[in-house]
Amino acid sequence: MMLTRPRDWFTDIDFTDSAAATARIAREFAGWAPEITALIADGDTAPVLRPLFALPVEHRWERVPGVTLLGDAAHLSLPNGEGANLAMYDAAELGKALAAHPDAVETALTEYERAMSPRSAAAGTEGTYVHELFYGDDAPHGLINMFTGGE
């Protein structure tokens, strides 16, 4: 289960007290189907805080000669199933740029970053959209509407 709350919300939960933490988290799902809330209340495992982080989609960095970034280091975004694919794509594109400019590393890095930025922005925007569908204020209704073609 996942909760989208400000980080401060979690500071009041004592995760070392498994029963209390479980009860507090379960209260957030009051009114949900008992089969769902049982996954929290009746589980054998204590809740674990695992925050998600993302950079703003438009985030860019200042170039440092001879250095570039790829994968999550370059475009950390909310999960959407594309992270590993995008990192491998970045690596392949960086390799192609370096091969195309073997004597001009800065040209290769600039070319790579120029192509990588819009590609990663699109994936980041999709990650934000997917996160909102699954965990936004309208969840799960937005997700259901997406699958059923509803409003």
From TrEMBL:
The keyword Nucleotidyltransferase does not apply. Keywords: FAD, Flavoprotein, Monooxygenase, Oxidoreductase. Gene3D superfamilies: FAD/NAD(P)-binding domain. Residues 66-122 form the FAD-binding domain. One of its GO terms (molecular function) is FAD binding. This is FAD-binding domain-containing protein. It comes from Streptomyces violaceusniger.
